[in-house]
Design brief:
Layout lengths: L9 H10 L3 E5 L5 E4 L1 H8 L11 H4 L3 H5 L14 H10 L7 E9 L2 E16 L2 E10 L1 H7 L19 H11 L9 H15 L13
Antiparallel strand pairs: 1-2, 1-5, 3-4, 4-5
Amino acid sequence: MTILFDPSDNAMLRAVLDAMPSAVFVVDADVRIMMANRAAHELIRSSGVPSPAPLRAGEALHCLHALDHPGGCGRSADCSDCVIRGAVGDALAGKASRRLRTRMNLSLDGHRRDVYLQVTASGFEHQARQLALLVMEDISAFAELRKIVPICAQCKKIRQDEDYWQSVENYVGQYMDLSFSHSYCPSCKQDMLNAIDAAHVIPGNRRPRSIDG
């Protein structure tokens, strides 16, 4: 049997973790950060913290609730329903991992910033100690996009299908490198065809055109 790599090769495992685009933390039951990959360090540095260890996740990210209590992360009243702490607790209790979404209220440079995260936690044991692999993905751009209501670029009527209109295209172009084609809702298309007919038909011979032909 061919062994692709030695599982005891810590350098290899570290390289794999650092190659992951998502923020990955190894935390204990109190969500205290024991280890973090490169993406996690970048996420932490965006909060103004040079290094996450040995801080708890809320303290490293400058969660407003962690700042509300002198005891820090997990000690304020709002921490009781923290999705991140709940996910870690479930993982350490042996429950199956699942993706959860949450909004964190952060304090960055004295300003509040809401960040939407997709959180996954899986429990494991290392040297007789129960730990959790905590993965955080920043989905703020997608969460903001879902708040935007698709409307017709001309009449502003809401479109009830998968087509997005003017209010969305600039946002998507900026954050997702996508562009949309343009169209009209049925009533606006009919108005446009009627206007064309009115401009070119001899008076008295006008025959209204429908959008079906």
